[in-house]
Amino acid sequence: MKCIICNSEKFSVLYRGKIRTGSFGQQSSHDQTVYKCDSCQSGFLPDAGFKYDTSEYRVEVEGVADFEAFQALHDREQDEKLSVLGSDNLRGKVIADIGCGGGSFLDLVCGMAHKTVAVEPCRNFHDGLSEKHLVYGHLSHALEDLEEQVDLAVSFAVIEHVDDPLSFLKEMRLLLKPGGKVLISTPNYDDWMLKFLPGVYESFFYRKAHQWYFNKASLQALASMSGYNSIEIIYKNRFDLSNALHWIRDHMPTGSGEIQLFDGLDGSYKHILEQTGQTDFIYAWLSV
Length: 288
Known about the structure:
The protein is an alpha/beta fold. 33% of the residues lie in helices and 22% in strands. Strand 7 (150-156), helix 7 (165-175) and strand 8 form a beta-alpha-beta unit.
């Protein structure tokens, strides 16, 4: 076995056990092994993957494949993306979202942007996306028309799904105009809950849908091999202290806001995790 990213043949085991196959509670029938490349530090699940050009993934993981239902589910996530992105450099820009789903992010920025480009493999979403955005099914197709024409390319929680992250980031780089930037996000395998609840939280975190697992070191190595000269890591914890306490007590997620008592502590809780790099999520700004 060779690492697809760096061709190393040296691996260690990042996790071995049951993994999530869909929503919470759906577990694999057999133990699975997530390997970590000893060279580039990327985690890899050999038996992962869905057919993303159909509705299979959306139904299996989210329970719905309807375009409007998807938007209702994901519209709430856009605040965090804007907090990382900022809104002061969007006007008049060409913005591409790779793996955009129902286009919630693009809908938010299209009023300021000169052009918005939706790249989404799920064909069921193309009609809805095409009402506002230029639509492509795959990144390689967009690259045929838009090489060196994009000011900002984003890809939120997508890189962990792709077959070849190195080729993926190289193609995103080729979209960029001189001075353009890429913003990606992905779960962080330095999440403190993985260390605090081994086995229990690990069997939720590692999942069939995710072929790849990254932290700061592995993203930096991947970006460098992909031809980017600069990488800035931003840590974000999406869930609050209430959710963490329920995990510890009940071994299950609740989402945020289940216990209002801890609202005043959430800022400190998230700040500590973000300062120490132990959040559940990680963003990376890439530039050439």
